[in-house]
Amino acid sequence: MDDWKPSPLIKPFGARKKRSWYLTWKYKLTNQRALRRFCQTGAVLFLLVTVIVNIKLILDTRRAISEASEDLEPEQDYDDALGRLEPPRRRGSGPRRVLDVEVYSSRSKVYVAVDGTTVLEDEAQEQGRGIHVIVLNQATGHVMAKRVFDTYSPHEDEAMVLFLNMVAPGRVLICTVKDEGSFHLKDTAKALLRSLGSQAGPALGWRDTWAFVGRKGGPVLGEKHSKSPALSSWGDPVLLKTDVPLSSAEEAECHWADTELNRRRRRFCSKVEGYGSVCSCKDPTPIEFSPDPLPDNKVLNVPVAVIAGNRPNYLYRMLRSLLSAQGVSPQMITVFIDGYYEEPMDVVALFGLRGIQHTPISIKNARVSQHYKASLTATFNLFPEAKFAVVLEEDLDIAVDFFSFLSQSIHLLEEDDSLYCISAWNDQGYEHTAEDPALLYRVETMPGLGWVLRKSLYKEELEPKWPTPEKLWDWDMWMRMPEQRRGRECIIPDVSRSYHFGIVGLNMNGYFHEAYFKKHKFNTVPGVQLRNVDSLKKDAYEVEVHRLLSEAEVLDHSKNPCEDSFLPDTEGHTYVAFIRMEKDDDFTTWTQLAKCLRIWDLDVRGNHRGLWRLFRKKNHFLVVGVPASPYSMKKPPSITPIFLESPPKEEGGPGAAEQT
Amino acid sequence: MSRISKNVILVLLTLTSSAFLLFQLYYYKHYLSTKNGSGLSKSKGSQIGFDRTQWRAVKKFIMLTSSQNVPVFLIDPLILELINKNFEQVKNTSHASSTSECKFFCVPRDFTTFALQYQLWKNEEGWFRIAENMGFQCLKIESKDPRLDWIDSLSGTEIPLHYICKLASHAIHLVVFHERSGNYLWHGHLRLKGHIDRKFVPFRKLQFGRYPGAFDRPELQQITVDGLDVLIPKDPMHFLEEIPHSRFIECRYKEARAFFQQYLDDNTVEAMTFRKHAKELLQLAAKTLKKLGVRFWLSSGTCLGWYRQCSIIPYSKDVDLGIFIQDYKSDIISAFQDAGLPLKHKFGKVEDSLELSFQGKDDVKLDIFFFYEETDHMWNGGTQAKTGKKFKYLFPKFTLCWTEFVDTKFRVPCETVEYIEANYGKTWKIPIKTWDWKRSPPNVWPNGVWPISEWDEVIQLY
User: Fold this and answer.
1) Cβ-defined contact of A374 to B151 (cutoff 8 Å)
2) How far is B84 from chain A (nearest CA, A)?
3) Are residues A529 and A541 in the same domain?
4) Where is the ILEI/PANDER domain (chain A) (predicted)?
5) Are residues A423 and A492 part of one domain?
6) Is B205 exposed, middle or buried (0-12, 13-18, 19+ CB in 10 A)?
7) Most buried residue, A399, A421, A573, A645, by most Cβ within 10 Å?
8) Same domain for A109 and A207
9) What pLDDT is stored for residue A75 in this prediction?
10) For the residues of A461-498, what is the DSSP string, one character each?
11) pLDDT of residue A18
């Protein structure tokens, strides 16, 4: 209606005119009565006409006017929408703008309540030991991060320092100790606590209790501490009650340029903490990567299913690497989250991807397996035209040439029925056993960890007989079973195109990861041209293996294969060793050899008809199981296959961890 | 004195109202010239009709979509029909020789309807904002993704179904098509939720969205009409024919899950192999009949399986299809034979009680029943081979809808409950394994006996 404003401007003009007219009229009209009558009727008629025309015009222009005024509206709508997305303001944030925070620390229980709502409560036995940290948004009081650092154990304090450094200045930090939090709390961590203004934190002693509330980079808002009187006892429980003044939303947010991406970033950063520079005000890390497109990308329209649980930091790292890979098409990616967790969904939304949540069915491994099934089915439903799907997990780094690798090899899955999958992961590809990023193998085992599934395989074979929830099976173990695999093989690269970084997980812990995953080789070279891809087809591969075996130099079998000197100090040679393998399922010697080579030895992986291929000291190293392998005929008669005995039972067990 | 003041008031009123009138006239003219400045000045010459709001709205919309690489195509039935009628002329009009008259996009109407395949839409969020900056007022209608519906444990981000973007008095209705298993495109139901302004546009007049719909994936072609480059279906006629019969019904996944909770699913190897074979047979039959252009629908047990449990009933031992007798073609038999399905038996004749049965692979039989239409009901016939007895199965009248079953698009009777209740009674929800086709159905009526002289023709067993 702003456009109506000109009307007052017109009025004075009319009024001035009106006065002179009125005078002349008055003069004339008093003289001529008839004329006056006529003018009066004329005026009335004119008035009527004006009213009618006015009404018509009002009707006509109303639409136009509303149009004009509505131009302003979309902006408002958007702001409203943003407002709705933000977490609901806490009760205390109304006129009072203060949160009351309660923090409790004791031997067996910790809890934190904000405005009467418990945001952390841990009284489970044998769990949650260490320093619990909670980050609150200083404007809304919303919980942005919750972590526990078991600083009784080594290295956890480093993780805590890393985390606390990432928290944006101004946030409200809450710390509380459960059981013990000082044993491995080193000086760096103590210095950091001191810099936060804590008195007791830097002096935290054995089995002390401690509760702390403070603003990062600002004042301490409350702290309580109780010393443990003796080695064998704990400090008294402490309960800290304090008021936290809230600041305005303005102060709590960064002033990024108003773009689509920053809108996503703002939404994310006002909700969660602990993602490093993505929320940095000054120089935030990008959330869009636009890697180079792949020329002739054969996997551009292959859907990518990311299987995720509640490990949002992992998911964040994984999606960053995935979206940075050459040839990625973000609209083909779907993240399937097992459970109604908010934070992983926030991460997915940050990158503008599609996220789907899945109600957990069953428990443990069966839960994972049901999640896989639902995710795979949904993927093929969402992309009914797709012939393949790429399956990834949230704890994988994706190589920059991941899609390039698939684009060059995916035609094999179409052309060769004897293939089960293409995987980006070489189970035996460690730093010291993998060398050639252009080389591919055929293996009888299914490695998983970043792989391509054929739709027909899934729809016709796997989906109908997928293990039901009450069977507590691992999906991958089930897929490796001979009933499912039916003699088919997978294509893998020598140098893996994925890297398994997950340390926390259902079947995973720090030691296990250190022993089997940490030293895995991971390709970082972009645009690797794979060599001779068609030689990976069933028959061609046999020709290739025979050629390799024919030109391979036979190693000195009198030496100990576990010794480093078993392979000469050459480069670029091909060597072969023959080990004893009585039957197709006799892997006694191989397992021992794998152990001393420090590669995967928990079950048999990476074999092709009794042949293993790997690299040692930059030489291609072939191992043939005699006499079970059909390649045994390449063994010179003079050579006696190596035999390694498995160690006595009590020493055994799943214990390659002991070796490292 | 009173007369003078009366006069004064009269004159004052006259003057103010004329001033008001002048202002309004001035404003109105001003408004028009700014709002469509370019359009007006350009079309002032020889071109007729190009100043229409419809044309301008469409032009702006096409500018917007082409600048954002959003491959929208025109599906407006009114305009497609016009284009189809004048197809030769449209094709011959090159872009350069500009038409002098706006014929297609200037026909008075409230909406112009476009469509889009969702998976080709790269930048939905950004597009939306640009549209609003260009002056469009947009309404987005979202819903949950039906492709995830049958897995009850999944809840995804909602998918957009319809956009309605208004510019001045004309609205562009953008129907978002989603790909479904079975190589077809699906669009959703335009359901107005509580907060939506019901007066935003005259929703009742929309051509799409009253029901969900299914369409063959159209091939597209680029044409120039009324000076605008638009994509339209390559075969506009085919698309137009699809529209009235495009209504789509989703399988009742929720009820199916409830069914399986009550009656556990048969997961034995035999059941799974039967389902696999039946599925392949259904898909093969669908392909064969589609090639012939014969309309058909899921009937009897297959229809019951779809409706009750969204899957093939494992103990049904055959698959059943229905075809209207007026759609009968004599080459159906040979087409099936070419597809590897030999004729097993043929009962009746085209004039009466025709029924065909084909032998699928792996012992699964394909039964095709032909339906005859009477004034107030439909029926199909049955014949007992041994005795020559005829039976008649009565159904209330029904129309056909699309659905998705075993990853394929099939027709089913829209009035499914009535159809199934006629055939299986009110207790169709309870699975029954023993079923006598001559006695069990509540809608079966004896229909006399075939005269022995005709047996050779009406009872053919192979």
Assistant:
1) yes
2) 30
3) no
4) 129-218
5) yes
6) exposed
7) A399
8) yes
9) 34
10) IIGGGPPPTTS---HHHHHHSHHHHTT-EEEEESSBSE
11) 56
Tokens 């509206």 correspond to A73
Q: Is A187 in the same domain as A233?
A: yes
Q: With contacts defined as CB-CB under 8 Å, which chain B residues touch A355? A: 156-157
- Name the residue of chain A whose CA is nearest to B137's CA: A74
Q: Supply the range of the domain harboring residue A107.
A: 98-250
Q: List the alpha helices (DSSP H) in B86-195.
A: 87-92, 124-133
The last residue of one of the domains, among A510, A534, A558, is A534
Count of domains forming chain A: 4
Statement: residue B380 has pLDDT above 70: yes
- Mind listing the pLDDT tens digit for each residue in A266-321? 999 989 988 878 988 888 999 999 898 999 999 999 999 999 999 999 999 999 99
Confidence band (pLDDT; 50, 70, 90) for A28? low
The answer to whether B142 and B161 are in contact (CB under 8 A) is yes
**CA A531/CA B33 separation, integer angstroms:** 67
* Position A42 confidence tier, pLDDT thresholds 50, 70, 90: confident
Q: Which chain B positions have a beta carbon within 8 Å of A63's beta carbon? A: 168-169
A615 shares its domain with A523 = no
A475, A510, A534 - which closes a domain: A534
CA distance A133 to A302: 41
Candidate list A395, A401, A416, A427, residue with the active-site label: A395
Whether A356 sits inside 8 A of B182 (CB atoms) is: no
| Neighboring chain A residues of B135 at a CB cutoff of 8 Å | 71
ipTM: 0.76
Identify the band that residue B356 occupies on the pLDDT scale cut at 50, 70 and 90: very high
The model's pLDDT over B277-312, given as tens digits with 9 standing for 90+, comes to 999 999 999 999 999 999 999 999 999 999 999 999
Residue A654 has pLDDT above 50, yes or no: no
Give pLDDT tens digits for A415-433.
999 999 999 999 999 999 9
Any domain includes A647: no
Q: In this structure, are A265 and A330 located in the same domain?
A: no
Nearest CA in chain A to B11: A43
Over the stretch B259-283, which tens digit does the pLDDT of each residue have? 998 998 888 888 888 998 999 999 9
> Which residue in B has a C-alpha nearest to residue A260's C-alpha?
B126
Give catalytic status of residue A476 as yes or no: yes
Query: Does residue A12 form part of some domain?
Result: no
Please report which residue ranges of A416-468 form alpha helices under DSSP H. Answer: 455-456
A269 inside domain: yes
Select the residue of A7, A36, A381 nearest B181 (Cβ to Cβ). Answer: A381
Q: A325 and A465: one domain?
A: yes
Together in a domain, A565 and A584: yes
Q: Rounded distance, CA A434 to CA A620, Å?
A: 9
Q: Which of A58, A355, A356 sits opposite B148 (nearest CB)?
A: A356
Measured in residues, chain A has a length of: 660
Question: Has residue A315 been placed in a domain?
Answer: yes
**Cβ contact, residue pair B179, A54, below 8 Å:** no
* Alpha carbon distance, N-terminus to C-terminus of chain B: 115
How much is the pLDDT for A105?
93
Q: Do B14 and A46 touch (CB under 8 A)?
A: yes
Q: Do A64 and B8 touch (CB under 8 A)?
A: no
Has A77 been annotated as catalytic?
no
Interface membership of A38 toward B (CB under 8 Å): no
Show residues of chain A in contact with B15, CB under 8 Å: 14, 17-18, 21
Nearest CA in chain A to B10: A43
Confidence of residue A653 (pLDDT cuts 50, 70, 90): very low
Provide, rounded to the nearest whole percent, the portion of chain A with pLDDT above 90: 58
For the entire predicted model, the pTM comes to: 0.78
Nearest to A70 among B16, B23, B137 (CB): B137
A251: contact with B, CB 8 A cutoff:
no
DSSP B51-106: T-HHHHHHHHHHHHHHHTT---EE--HHHHHHHHHTHHHHHH--SSS--SB--STT
Residues 6+ apart with CB under 8 A from B270: B314
